[in-house]
Amino acid sequence: MKRIFQVGLLVAAAAAAVALAVPALAEIDVNAQLFSADDDVPGVALPASPLVGTLDGSAAVQDYDDVFAVPLLFNQRFDVDMTSTGAGTDFDLQLWKPGSPTIYASKPLSYIVQASSTEGTSTETFWYPASVTGTYSLNVVDWNDSAGPYDLTWSVVQLPEPQVTSRIPSTVKWGGGATIAGTATLRGVPLDRPKIMIASRRYGSKTWSYVNKERDTASGNYGMPRTVGSSTGTFSYRVYPTRLTEYRVIVWPTHDVGRTYGTVTLVSPRATITTPKAPNRVRAKRSFSIAGYLKPKHKVGARDVRLRCYSKNKNGSYTWRKTVFATNRATTKHPTYTRYTRTTSLPFKGTWKIVAYIPGDSIHTARTSNPEYVKVY
Fold it and tell me: Model-level pTM?
C-alpha cells in the first residue's frame, strides 16, 4: 500500500506497561499472515501476547503500518510495550479511538487517543484506560521508511471505578464565581491526590468541554489534568459561568484507578437589576419616568425589563394592578450595564410600589429588584 502521509504525535507515554504472560502465537511473523486488512482501521484481530511482526517501508515494499483491532470495555486499561532488533528502525505506536475513519485522516490528532513516539528508536510503551466501550485500533507505524521486526507485548486489565461526590451553588452572582468542591473515594477509602477534570457545557448543548485544560507534562497519561485533590481525596475548583452552564466532575483515570463521572449540576448566573427610581410623589393619571440599571448588558432598544405596579390596600397588602415594559438604553455612566427606562402613569390615589423584573433566559436566571414606593395624589 502506498503511504499517503506519516502521522506524527507529540505525546510520549512514560508509564511502564505490565506484561500479561499469555502463551500463543509467540515468534510468529504477523506480516506473513496478514495483507491489506492490517493496513488501516479497524485492523485485524490483535494476536495473543507476545507477538512478532515486521514492517518494511522501503520503496519496493511500502509496508508502513500494521493495524490491530483492540476491543475494550469502559475502564479497561490497555498496556503495550514494543522493541525492535532491526538496525536503524524507528517504529511508533498509536491508538485510534472507535469509529475512526482511516489512519490517513487529514486531522489524525482528532482520532488518536494515546501514542508513544520516541525519536530514533523503536522502544515504545504506553497505557490507556478506555473512555468508552468499543473497538480501538492499535497502529504500529514505520516512521522512517526502515525495515525490520518488532516485538510486541500487551495486556488488558479492568480498573476499579472510584466514587465522587461534589457540590456547587445552583446560582451565582453575575460576574462572580462559584466553587466546585467534593471528595473522591475508592471502596469507601479516600483517594490520595485524585486527578480531577471539570467538564462544562452550555445549557441545552450536548457537547462537553474541559474547563481545566492544563495537561500534566510529567505524566505518561495523555491529557492528565493538573488539578489534583488532597491526600484525603478532597478537591475544589473555581468556575465563572457567564450563562446557564452545566458542570460535572470527572475523576481522571490513573494507572491503577479507572475513570468516573459525577452528577451534572446546572449553574445559573443571577442578573443584577437595581431598584427602579421614580418621583416620590406623582399625580394620578399623570405621566412620570421610571429608570434603573440591568446587568449583564442587553440589546439596546429591546424591552426585557418588566415594571410591575401594585396598589396598597387598606389592610396593608398590595394588589398587582398593571405591568409595563421598559426599554433598554445605552449608558456611559455604567458602561457594563444597560439602563432601562419607561414613562407611565398610575390610575388612582394612594400608595404604590413598583418592582422591576427580568425573566430568565439562556444567559441568566430570573431576577426581581427591590421595590420603589410612590405616593399618588
Answer: 0.76
